[in-house]
């Protein structure tokens, strides 16, 4: 029995307050040899272990990539189908038919590339390829839900790539435990999403949609629109989360002469804060009642899931407008619908739902004063070209055994990125 | 027969290239004594006459105002009706029911105040009061069309006030010839309109409306939206007209990282131009083919009426987006509808039509890829409060015989404001 040094696997699992570091190496016959070490969370030992583990994993990944680049890979892409729209725009690469524009490149390198939109259930096209695929590419717009069960079944899986931003459709602890790498194209559509947020703020605040509906229905009733239409100027806008998208939104809001607030775990550096002109609110519950408009810009994690429930919404000002392009599951679905019906929330807009596609009976389709669409803000043609290029770049690095741009990793070296912990 | 010095009327009419200055004085028996002087356009004599006329008129107006403040006035307001929406918002002052919030104040001063939305035809409520009203207040959102015929009939009329901005519903040469004063509340809703323009740019460019329609119809088809959705970042935006609203739009566009162009008669001062970051385009026809997005921000005058016809639209880039919150009659209605149908124009949005209310069969209601609403952008609740205060201020000055803020005058001292000449 001889160890095959290039195929070392390094696995970190997290369970409760204890972490167990497992260093295993795939033997020639494929069976793992586990080495288990108990590790106390929060201790200095943990930090030491992490550092040591990082170095080891760095070598392990490089080794694996060098190994994997030698052979042909099975890559599966799950995207939304374009159908009749596929040929309408040569830059429409984000759909099944466009396949990120990388089919020729992948096949010329000897890899196989399966693309589908059929992602749900045991009889789906995706399910057929789970067992032997090496790479899965999917998007937040038409997410392939990568559960712990699917990860267990995916014995060859090495890499999960998100064409876009937001990898919450993946069971990240399970992916980490299985030693997979999860990465997204950070920054590829932050501008797209921030622009869309500002659009939805204006649509709701200015009461645009009833006016549009009047036009197409042959009507004309200015009062029916104007009695609840407001300027953005002078209003208080608060963002829950001021990461990449939140900051881009604040920058775009600046010339509108609003009162800008932000809540986040950390304060933006003072210079940027001054430039943006937004005030830090350490206590979310203290910020909520001050806002005329609240924008959700936080990732979906176990901490933020269902965060905006009935109690949280009750803390907001009566007549508040909420825009959420982050993730649907951050909200309590029924609490949002109820608050729109009662009028406590004067408008709710966004492009994210749970699950996606939203079922026909999803209450947000039918609640009053909404500005909802399918999940589109991050999949403009401009964004598609950027995230397609980002996916190609990461695949190229994967084949060559090179690291990805650091900010793209969601799971790297056995550890979740900090915002997912 | 004795002249009544406080009731001097000073009338300037313009006809072709000749101006005739008529100085008349109402006699005690009411008949005018005209004094007519030929005046060559463009000559130095004209400038001299204008200066002299201005001084004379200044005295005449002051005298008239002093005279008129003594008696009670009949003031007519034409606004849109709110009906069921009237009581939904205490700040909803811009409707018939709200009556600008000045009824109590006017009546306490002994004036009569008639308010209606019934403005068309010889049997309308407005028509009943034309003969003896002193002041007419109307809005661009539900305009009372003040024709030369109506002006002729309105023997007591002294003042035409626009609650808002844009007085093209008034036959301005006829109003000037009749010695009337026409004024609006300049600046009262420029921010409101600029915000709305940016909203419509985003709605069209990002293809929001088909997504919204999918949601309410129980559908989900990301491709149907995404295949023609774009970011604003990096696009070329040109404004035709860079007055108050055009500049506010450019300032709000700045953080979107667009290529900003503007066409106007005059260049913005270099410092402001640098601050806004927009490039001056002297030749409109040279600017049009450069733009991904064109925004109309020019007043409706005889020069701009029907300006964007088939030929002008053909000069624009295929796939251009047009936003027009200025006036509907600046466009050739059918040319716009045809260009949207052919796809040469990828989207057309705005809130202005001709006539208003738009008839049920107006082609803009039914053309593809539009983002039209009734005329609402300048009548947000915030704007209503501002223009109601502005109207009250001008009425107060009128009663006291004081001048209005200079920028409010459309017709003053027998001369049209420069942009209407």
UniProtKB/TrEMBL annotation, chains A, B:
Reaction catalyzed: formate + NAD(+) = CO2 + NADH
Site (Important for catalytic activity): 327, 375
Keywords on record: Mitochondrion, NAD, Oxidoreductase, Transit peptide
Subcellular location: Mitochondrion
Enzyme class: oxidoreductase
GO cellular component: chloroplast; mitochondrion
Top-level taxon of the source organism: Eukaryota
Chain segments annotated as transmembrane: none
D-isomer specific 2-hydroxyacid dehydrogenase NAD-binding domain mapped to chain residues: 199-377
EC number(s) on file: 1.17.1.9
Family statement drawn from the similarity comment of this UniProt entry: Belongs to the D-isomer specific 2-hydroxyacid dehydrogenase family. FDH subfamily.
Purpose of the protein: Catalyzes the NAD(+)-dependent oxidation of formate to carbon dioxide. Involved in the cell stress response.
Name of this protein: Formate dehydrogenase, mitochondrial
